[in-house]
């Protein structure tokens, strides 16, 4: 009995010590981690709508937008301001890629044009879906407006609203394209409701 009890007590003490150390580390770093995440989100907003100097969160977004697809993807919306003048919107969206959920930050300027796309947290396949973060793919969205619906093509694109798919990453391409389309649609809807003149 003593041979069984002694290792069990030692194991229990080790587990207790490790758990206490982890809890202490979490308590000490929790605020720092949250502050860092907040700063990362702010930097992403500035990257996609560089003209803005401040961002004002749009409260009660669900009641302002109509489309269910857009409501499912758009998690947060901000008005971009420069000297209290409206310069555009920034949206935080979550879409489903090949590797799971992807978080995107998308800017739409006051003209209704996509001003930037930044892909954040994702688990897309390195060398394939992860190419969605790279310039050749992302730059296809810049300047697009709410005119024609975006479509995906596997060969060369012939129209601005056509998005050339990443080879071997069609699901990722579709996920990002749908998120950008949702941001464009929501921006157009908000501009109409808020009386923004283009």
UniProtKB/TrEMBL annotation:
Domain of life where this protein originates: Bacteria
Coiled coil regions in record: none
Swiss-Prot/TrEMBL keywords: Cell membrane, Electron transport, Flavoprotein, FMN, Membrane, Phosphoprotein, Signal, Translocase, Transmembrane, Transmembrane helix, Transport
Membrane topology: Single-pass membrane protein
EC number: 7.-.-.-
Record's subcellular location: Cell membrane
Gene Ontology terms describing biological process: electron transport chain
Names of the cofactor(s): FMN
Sites of FMN phosphoryl threonine modification: 170
Entry-linked HAMAP family: RsxG_RnfG
Homology family: Belongs to the RnfG family.
Complex and partners: The complex is composed of six subunits: RnfA, RnfB, RnfC, RnfD, RnfE and RnfG.
Protein name: Ion-translocating oxidoreductase complex subunit G
Species this chain originates from: Clostridium thermosuccinogenes
